[in-house]
Design brief:
With 229 residues, this protein is mainly beta. The chain is built from 3 helices and 13 strands. This is DUF2071 domain-containing protein.
């Protein structure tokens, strides 16, 4: 099977916190099962910049080739295949949101977003504008803790990031989308969360331990979605 879309992700932050597996399972559509690391479930907040977006056989399209994205994700299995499940994906490009919702069955939402860099630090803000969607805001400052790439990522680092498919459900049908990318060049990350109404519904509390990783750049290839059920 040939890829249908390529993307480059830049200045990407992974902020993860642990949640109760039973609670997480109650939030997932059947037949997805919460994937656990040493008995613990995790949810992630992931802001990043996306560019060089292009469909196979076409050049990058000016109205679609660059956007900001912020997603809330978790980790699941289906028939023992591990993957990612998205609770929400906020994006800055209206056309991109419409395409993703219509053709890829993903819960994208239109948002007003800005990202600015000062040195290695990124100031990222997002305010959801999507009609009928729950309101959600975020103001976060983040970057790498050092210039060094983690030479031997931990088992948890790899479990959270090396995922090569995603699952989504729409109109009673479950779909799987596969993707390919080279292994992440991860760095330890840092962040300061100044305003946040997007993660509290997913049980992130101020006292929670946050597992934070940063990646400067990653090239990805996406393959056609397959209906599983």
């Amino acid at each position: 099977m040939k890829w249908i879309m390529k993307q480059t992700w830049r200045n990407l932050l992974f902020v993860h916190w642990a949640v109760d597996p039973v609670w997480l399972q109650s939030r997932l559509p059947n037949p997805l099962k919460a994937d656990l690391f040493e008995g613990q479930a995790w949810i992630g907040l992931v802001p990043f910049e996306m560019d060089n977006i292009r469909l196979r056989g076409l050049p990058s399209m000016p109205l679609l080739s660059n956007l900001l994205e912020l997603n809330i994700r978790t980790y699941v299995t289906c028939k023992n295949k591990p993957g990612v499940y998205f609770f929400s994906l906020d994006a800055s490009n209206l056309i991109g949101v419409q395409v993703a919702r219509s053709f890829f069955h993903l819960p994208y939402y239109r948002a007003k977003m800005m990202a600015g860099k000062k040195g290695e630090r990124t100031q990222f803000t997002s305010e959801r504008l999507h009609k009928g969607a729950p309101p959600a805001k975020l103001h976060i400052e983040y970057g790498p803790a050092s210039s060094e790439v983690i030479m031997k990522p931990s088992a948890l680092d790899l479990w959270l990031t090396e995922r090569y498919c995603l699952f989504t459900k729409k109109c009673g049908h479950l779909f799987r989308g596969d993707l390919y990318h080279e292994p992440w060049k991860l760095q330890t990350g840092t962040c300061s969360i100044h305003a946040d109404t997007i993660t509290p519904p997913f049980r992130r509390e101020e006292r929670d331990y946050l597992h934070i990783l940063y990646a400067k750049e990653l090239n990805t290839e996406f393959f056609p979605f397959v209906k599983l059920y």
